[in-house]
Amino acid sequence: MTKNYLTTAQGAPVADNQNSLTAGQNGPVLIQDVHLLEKLAHFNRERVPERVVHAKGAGAHGVFKVTNDVSAYTKADFLSEIGKETPVFTRFSTVAGELGSADTLRDPRGFAVKFYTETGNYDIVGNNTPIFFIRDAIKFPDFIHTQKRDPRTHLKNPNAVWDFWSLSPESLHQITILMSDRGIPATYRHMHGYGSHTFLWVNNNDEQFWVKYHFRTNQGVKNLLADVATKIAGENPDYHTEDLYHAIENGDTPSWTLHVQLIPFEEGLEMKELLFDVTKTISQKKYPLIEVGTMTLNRNPENYFAEVEQVTFSPGNFVPGIEASPDKLLQGRLFAYGDAHRYRVGANSSQLPINAPKVAVRNNQKDGAMRMDNGTSSVNYEPNSFNSVKEQAAAKISRYAIEGSIGNYTYDDNYYSQAGDLYRLLPIDEQQRLVENIVASLSQVTYPEIQQRQLLHFYQADEAYGQAVADGLGLTVKNK
User: Fold this and answer.
1) CA 73, CA 320: separation in Å to the nearest integer?
2) Where are the domains of the chain?
3) Which residues are catalytic?
4) Which pTM value belongs to this model?
5) 163-167, long-range: CB within 8 Å, 24+ apart, which pairs?
């Protein structure tokens, strides 16, 4: 028997991979052909459920290198000294499209980075925009329902999209970005990335700083005009995936410089409705970007399914020195992402090579589907009287006071100022394209009351903004 022989999943040699086991020349096929049954059963299960959001994407391995000393602000080990390098895996994606959708759709792009640090895995799970459409996780399922297919027609539904947006005025800032030139990046390599939420850094002296992450592309920002993007979508729906793969394969390794905005703890609490509202940005004039390090993607995956499809990210994957903020959308994501992975990939998805940390894992989680390492100890509980794993008091998160009555609260109702500021910052030609893109989408809405409601939002952000959209639709802004 040769060494390079075909086996079953249990390692047994396969004698015939061309012909099923049958009762005689003409069959029927025997149920005892376990190799046939195994092949067919596995084939039926070769596709895990696609991600509810961020289904279409591409990824690559790389390295993060610290270029500036930020140890005064965080005790995170992978940021502890200049020159320190940490392996990373980064996944880019569209948000609303299915697995087979086109890369060049007008949609935010996911920008997720897994740092394989010496104190566990740390994930930054953001987008290519610094903000989002909603600011409370309770609205997320409803929002995504409007972006997906109509449950009756199975078609995309512009009425649902704009109905939700017009009834959620906090979405206006993100709509303005989405419908601008930035709504369709030229490639994954030519877009910025953001952590979007506010997080908390803690240093070795237990001093706390609010932090926001900005990955700035070193390739320069480039975008696609709508007509070009539509043309590419028809000719090569995998355009961005192909571009990233070939760039890395040809040695044109893309890189991003990570910067942060740091806000003193008490100062941040004084503007908490701005700081923790993910539909708003924090002034870079008041809190300028501070360089942290460079991320370079230098190696393509060996297998797309094993690495890009099965990789799992969660904003709840923290390491000592980095903690959550009270941002209500972030708080919901801390649960939702891990729960999505347990459903989609399995309870033990953290043991897959692409997700497994580079440091030893010692916990009392046992059993479950696809468990690869269950340990050898009979002690699977804590506290215990034996020399088994113990809690580590030094890893406790920092403290700060909270107070208030239980209730359902919203952030402030300033939905318009930052959207208006953004519109006025755009050059005239970009303003025109922004309006054209909005008109092209909003004109598909068949309910005049939805159009009017949304027009009023644009008008309140900037009168010229609202009037331009109204003119494009051939409408008059009512109740202004």
Assistant:
1) 12
2) 57-359, 417-473
3) 54, 127
4) 0.93
5) 163/445, 163/447, 163/450, 165/133, 165/454, 166/450, 166/453, 166/454, 166/457, 167/453
- State the CATH architecture for 57-359: Beta Barrel (2.40)
**What is the mean pLDDT, run by run of 10 residues, along the chain of 480 residues?**
74 82 80 81 81 95 98 97 98 95 97 95 97 94 94 96 97 98 98 98 97 98 98 98 98 98 96 93 97 98 97 94 93 92 91 92 84 84 82 83 83 95 98 98 98 97 98 91
Tell me the binding residues for heme: 337
